UniProtKB/TrEMBL annotation:
Residues 113-132 are annotated as: Disordered. It is a single-pass type I membrane protein. The keyword Membrane applies. It is found in: Membrane. Its main location: membrane. Keywords: Coiled coil, Membrane, Signal, Transmembrane, Transmembrane helix. This is GOLD domain-containing protein. Residues 215-257 form a coiled coil. Residues 20-306 form the GOLD domain. One of its GO terms (cellular component) is membrane. The keyword Transmembrane helix applies. It comes from the Eukaryota. Residues 1-18 form the signal peptide.
Amino acid sequence: MVLFIASRFALLLAICHALPLQFLINQRSSECLYEKLEESEAATFSLFVLSGKSLRATVEISGPVADAAVVSGMALQDGIDAFDQGRRPKGSLDVSGEVDFEHLNLGEPEFEDPVLESVPGETAEERKTRRAEERRKILEARHQKEMHARKQKKKVQTEAEPYLRTIQAPLAGWYRFCVKASFNQITAEIDLRKESELGGLDEDGHVMTNQQRIMEEEEKAMDQDTAAIEGIKDKDFQATRTQLKELRKLLNDIQTKQSQERLRLAVHAATNEHSHSRMALNSLMETILFMLVTGYQVYTIRRWFKGAPVLGR
């Protein structure tokens, strides 16, 4: 498999750019990623809080904070300052939400019901029928969003997957993706994926991961290879290619499980540490209360034996 082996070396270079970044974010501070998006281009923001006194963070996505033509850091900063001061283009994006990995609070899905406008010339009965159909579609869309939120929550709980938020750029320009440590210092793993770089969306509506893209590229390379190029019989070639595809899928599953296990262990370790701290604090408070009650009892009994007017005497 000459083409397959050659593609491996070409695609290994992309892995270095696919590793999530880890940030140590101080309390009431934030870390942001900036990315230029084309109009209607999708981008997926990934977050996983690895450690902290509380595994909570606030996700803020906004933009465009600067025009797509901006290329210098100074011009980008000027655009950010103007955006933060309220000088924003019409139709700009500004969403935020709290994420809690310890108590599995991934934020509530947002709903924006469209305004049901009247159509000129329609009768009252036609208007009633049309609006009933539009409301039905709105309820179906809301139900799908709720089911998607529940599915993502289950994935985080059972498979230790990161929090994912996919947006579609309403305008071309630079967009800002921030994580804010609102409650305490945290260590967060952050990743950002663009549709134009990774080739499309997966079945859940998120931009494909680099690992998924590599698998697609490898399958294309193997499909382009032929028995004549390899100099072997077609029967042997087909069997070898099938086995290689199965082996690659198995390796991909192992890599995914390893990543999930690493994140799961991180969350469990942090949760156990927090539980231990709370138990130690509760035990200390109970001990102090017990000592105070015991001291008061000793004091009361001594006063009683001395003949002091206590205990009803």
